[in-house]
Amino acid sequence: MSRTPHLLSIQSHVVFGHAGNRAAVFPVERLGVNVWPLNTVQFSNHTQYAQWTGEVLPPNQIPTLVEGIAAIGELGNCDAVLSGYLGSAAQGREILEVVARIKRANPRALYLCDPVMGHPEKGCIVAPEVSTFLLEEAAAVADLLCPNQLELNSFAGRRPTSLEDCVGMARALLARGPKAVLVKHLDYPGRAAENFEMLLASAEGTWLLRRPLLAFPRQPVGVGDLTSGVFLARLLLGDDLLGAFEFSAAAVHEVLLETQACGSYELELVRAQDRIAHPRVKFEARRLG
Ligand SMILES: Nc1ncnc2c1ncn2[C@@H]1O[C@H](COP(=O)(O)OP(=O)(O)O)[C@@H](O)[C@H]1O
Ligand SMILES: Cc1ncc(COP(=O)(O)O)c(C=O)c1O
Ligand SMILES: [Mg+2]
């Protein structure tokens, strides 16, 4: 029997609803990966409600908690680290130390960075110094980087003019160190309005994936966190980059269909659990160039 992979997932916790670890832990475990959730913040709800209560984890708690895992002899069993929503740049620096420590314990361990930067128009609030940390420090260390279009624009320092330009921006990120860049949401002049598009860039090439754009009265939150979690889970379960990319698009689309059918604002992860594990839809990515 093959071993169950272990993933250290360092992102936000919300008591109500689904974002950060609350969008990733359950689906990733449902797919068959053990998750070690380490919560960077504990908020009542995600920040797009415009109000919330709760606290940011003191940065020194990150190495303290990882030290506890090392002390019981389990750190070498960690197969990957995922980082997402951060409460401070200081937390980010502690995460990079933790990644280095885990890679010493298990040189095959992967680090996926979802560079959650905030989106003032949408109401996603992240401390501004976190963006600087992600741009200048985290990208160089990550094996896998999963920006959305706005985050890709921040890395490039400009907006794209076309799909080809998005490809160039994603491939420029590869040059900073990651083995793959998954752009979770593409937006560029001339994009067909009926589609939701994603991009995967690696040393082997670049792939574009299109799925239907669904209508929501209010855009659900946590979709990015769900996407990066499922993508990494499938890699840990043995998929190649392209397979994990296509699977994550299908599983996320199933969750969005369920969410839309229920008329919910929060992602319907519990109701969609079987569809996450066994998506009925399939999207094939198209190789570009
Ligand atoms: N198929 C889809 N149809 C409609 N909206 C979608 C679909 N897939 C994702 N979304 C929405 O697209 C947006 C993507 O957000 P974006 O900021 O680019 O990424 P992230 O989720 O990482 O923040 C989210 O608001 C999400 O709810
Ligand atoms: C607490 C928290 N975590 C994570 C996120 C990121 O969510 P998404 O997956 O939509 O990028 C948000 C977005 O507002 C948030 O408020
Ligand atoms: Mg995001």
UniProtKB/TrEMBL annotation:
Q: Could you list this entry's UniProt keywords, alphabetically sorted.
A: ATP-binding, Kinase, Magnesium, Nucleotide-binding, Transferase
In terms of InterPro entries, this protein maps to: PM/HMP-P_kinase-1, PyrdxlKinase, Pyridoxal_kinase_PdxY, Ribokinase-like
Entry's Gene Ontology cellular component terms: cytosol
Q: Which residues bind substrate?
A: S12, T47, Q48, D225
A Gene Ontology molecular function term for this protein is: ATP binding
Q: Where is the Pyridoxamine kinase/Phosphomethylpyrimidine kinase domain?
A: 76-263
> Which Gene Ontology biological process is one annotated for this entry?
pyridoxal 5'-phosphate salvage
Spell out the reaction equation it catalyses: pyridoxal + ATP = pyridoxal 5'-phosphate + ADP + H(+)
Q: What is its EC number?
A: 2.7.1.35
Enzyme class comes to transferase
Which metal ions or organic cofactors does this protein require, according to UniProt? Mg(2+)
Cross-referenced Gene3D superfamilies, in alphabetical order? 3.40.1190.20
Q: Which domain of life is it from?
A: Bacteria
What pathway does the UniProt record associate with this protein?
A: Cofactor metabolism; pyridoxal 5'-phosphate salvage; pyridoxal 5'-phosphate from pyridoxal: step 1/1
Q: Which residues bind ATP?
A: D114, E151, K184, R211, P212, L213, L214
The family line of this record is: Belongs to the pyridoxine kinase family. PdxY subfamily.
- NCBIfam families under this entry? PRK05756.1, pyridox_kin
- Quote the function comment for this protein: Pyridoxal kinase involved in the salvage pathway of pyridoxal 5'-phosphate (PLP). Catalyzes the phosphorylation of pyridoxal to PLP.
Complex and partners = Homodimer.
Q: What is the protein's name according to its record? A: Pyridoxal kinase PdxY
Instruction: Give the originating organism.
Output: Pseudomonas tohonis
